[in-house]
Design a protein that fits this description.
Elements: H1 5-24, H2 26-29, H3 33-38, H4 45-56, H5 59-72, H6 87-100, H7 107-115, H8 119-154, E1 161-163, E2 166-168, H9 170-219, H10 222-228, H11 254-261, H12 266-282, H13 289-296, H14 300-332, H15 334-338, H16 349-357, H17 362-384, H18 386-398, H19 404-427, H20 432-443, H21 445-456, H22 462-489, H23 502-518, H24 525-535, H25 542-551, H26 561-587, H27 590-610
Antiparallel strand pairs: 1-2
């Protein structure tokens, strides 16, 4: 495929512009650690909301979302519950405010705020740093895999390299080039360049989404979609089995993809996603860019507003593009997909559709937007992860009196080291889908238990947190490397999604939590009371609450569990409406479109009345 000169010019100007912006903001970013990692807590909540939305709008995730909509139809709207996507609802309803009240810089520093500074607290502090670094490396490998595959499919330039012992495939060269540019502007500008460039990237992506939505809507009819999809493809509901038979369609190979994913028993999958989702959401954001945005806000209420804004601005435009590419692929990509033979790569639906349907000029803008989505997300991780190494290891344990300039230099070196390790892992990544499912299902399974208990149980201490996190991290890592051997030993044939291992990993983590807690003394009560008084969580805080109220009779404990639960259910429906509205619009199901538009407006009103007005 060849690019029009205008498209190449737009892409080149965008890449140069982001580099220039990073260098321009470097003076402001390098004043001190708070400026470099949190932007000095000077950003408006809506700027951080746009930045956070851009950070979640990664190209690998977009390719995966187009793929699952192509394969699973409307039922694909449930599959992102694997993360779960509605953890953001828990965050904006109450967790963002709880977390921001800590006034800390990182999730590991927050652990010290929760458990004090005893030996158990130090162990829990170290284990969250390890988890943060492992998860960041996993995501970097995920991005490396996705951007290489995308660029090879969409850009005409051959960047493959063979020089002595170095042999780089085309997709690896593209990935290295873009990762290098992103790392460079992020290292120079810190949080300032991340936020400012991500806001620009979000605007480019939103415009691109509208263009793709228009092209798809005017190019495809509902009848054409129905003619190439199986019965039930356009229905959201499901039974115990998926119930999609692709045998008599132009894409009979899709049934092999469904079997490979192991999603045939969709009802069981849904129940497992719901079980995992509640605990994973209650645990709060993992120590990465999402948590960093929360800690970067000015006030706890701004943290809540920022998290809600992330949902409000992202889902409708993103799913307009996702639905547009999916239906264009279904109707018009039969020859290209058939040419793949038995080894159909459905993750290439997105780049194939761009090649075939987007006109010159707009293609350059769209490609710049999709590259922006990758760069924004990768930049967020590059900026967030070094804080754990520098602030939570070097400054805390090695050189507490280090100067701000020295800490920032170490942050830059740490970023480079993590990027190199992430790239090495990316070279050995199996597939985008494998990485996605392991990160969402297994790795987070080891995170959930300890991080739920830290919010709601007064007796839970630093040793319990360390034991739970260590047990979960070990169990999820064993699953990554020995899953096939485990299944073979159990006599289980066929693919089993990682999410079915979540209860086992959760159980191992729970045992570690309880053993560590009850085999050791409670944490320093003064530290626990300080946390409870400042954070004001609900949960099992009886003895602590009693002492706090004795010391301060004016203290009002949190009685908002019922209200928060109502707002969570409302927020989940509100978010789901924003996913479904663009899809129903694209497939011309006007009845369901009208229903979900009504759901959107009703839930928006309820959130305004019972959440926003109560902040």
């Amino acid at each position: 495929m060849s690019l029009h000169w205008l498209d190449s010019l737009i892409i080149g100007l965008y890449l140069l512009g982001t580099l220039g912006l990073g260098f321009y903001l470097s003076k402001r970013a390098t004043r001190d650690m708070a400026s470099y990692f949190l932007g000095g807590n000077n950003f408006k909540w809506y700027m951080l909301g746009l930045s956070n939305a851009s950070g979640m709008w990664d190209i690998s995730g977009t390719m995966w979302t187009v793929m699952i909509l192509f394969v699973y139809g409307l039922k694909s709207a449930w599959i992102p519950w694997l993360w779960p996507v509605w953890n953001q609802v828990f965050v904006f309803v109450f967790l963002a405010a709880w977390m921001r009240r800590s006034n800390t810089m990182t999730g590991a520093q927050w652990i010290t705020f929760r458990f004090g500074d005893g030996k158990g607290a130090k162990l829990s502090h170290i284990i969250i740093v390890v988890f943060a670094i492992v998860s960041v490396l996993g995501f970097m490998a995920y991005f490396f895999e996705g951007i290489g595959k995308f660029c090879t499919s969409i850009l005409p330039y051959d960047l493959s390299l063979s020089m002595g012992p170095i042999h780089l495939r085309n997709e690896q060269s593209y990935a290295l080039l873009l990762i290098g540019i992103t790392t460079l502007y992020t290292l120079k500008g810190g949080m300032y360049s991340v936020v400012v460039t991500e806001v620009l990237q979000f605007l480019i992506m939103t415009l691109s989404c509208l263009v793709i939505g228009y092209i798809a809507y005017t190019s495809v009819t509902g009848e054409q979609i129905a003619a190439v999809t199986p019965e039930g493809w356009g229905r959201l509901g499901f039974g115990m089995e998926l119930g999609l038979d692709w045998s008599n369609t132009p894409y009979p190979g899709v049934k092999d993809k469904i079997a490979q994913d192991g999603f045939g028993l969709f009802g069981a999958l849904f129940m497992m996603m719901l079980f995992k989702g509640v605990f994973a959401s209650l645990a709060g954001p993992v120590p990465s860019y999402d948590m960093q945005r929360i800690l970067s806000t000015r006030t706890p209420s701004d943290a809540a507003k920022m998290s809600a804004a992330t949902i409000a601005v992202m889902y409708i435009p993103r799913y307009l593009m996702v639905a547009g590419f999916a239906v264009l692929g279904l109707v018009y990509l039969q020859p290209e997909i058939a040419a793949m033979g038995k080894d159909i790569d459905f993750e290439k639906v997105l780049p194939l559709a761009i090649n075939k349907f987007v006109p010159a000029g707009w293609k350059g803008l769209l490609l710049a937007g999709l590259l922006a989505a990758f760069m924004g997300t990768f930049a967020a991780f590059v900026n967030a992860a070094p804080a754990y190494i520098v602030n939570d290891i070097y400054k805390k344990y090695i050189d507490p009196d280090a100067s701000q300039k020295k800490l920032i230099r170490l942050s830059i070196a740490s970023s480079l080291l993590l990027v190199i390790l992430g790239v090495i892992l990316g070279f050995n990544a199996a597939s985008l889908n494998t990485l996605t499912l392991w990160i969402t299902s297994a790795l987070y399974g080891g995170y959930a238990c300890a991080n739920v208990l830290k919010w709601i149980w007064w007796r839970f201490n630093g040793y319990g947190y360390f034991g739970g996190m260590l047990a979960g991290l070990i169990a999820s890592t064993i699953l990554l490397f020995f899953k096939d051997a485990i299944l073979q030993g159990l006599g289980i044939a066929g693919p089993v999604p990682d999410i079915y291992f979540f209860p086992v990993i959760f159980l191992f983590s729970l045992i570690g939590c309880l053993a560590g807690t009850f085999m050791t003394a409670p944490d320093n009560m003064d530290a626990v009371k300080s946390f409870y008084r400042q954070t004001r969580p609900w949960g099992w805080w009886g003895p602590v609450k009693k002492e706090v109220m004795q010391e301060d009779p004016s203290f009002i404990p949190n009685q908002d569990l019922g209200k928060d639960a109502f707002n969570i259910l409302t927020g989940m429906a509100w978010q789901m409406a924003q996913v479904l509205i663009p899809i129903y619009l694209m497939i011309r199901d006007h009845t369901q479109l009208a229903i979900w538009v009504m759901v959107f407006f009703v839930t928006s009103w309820l959130l305004k009345k019972y959440w926003w007005d109560k902040l």
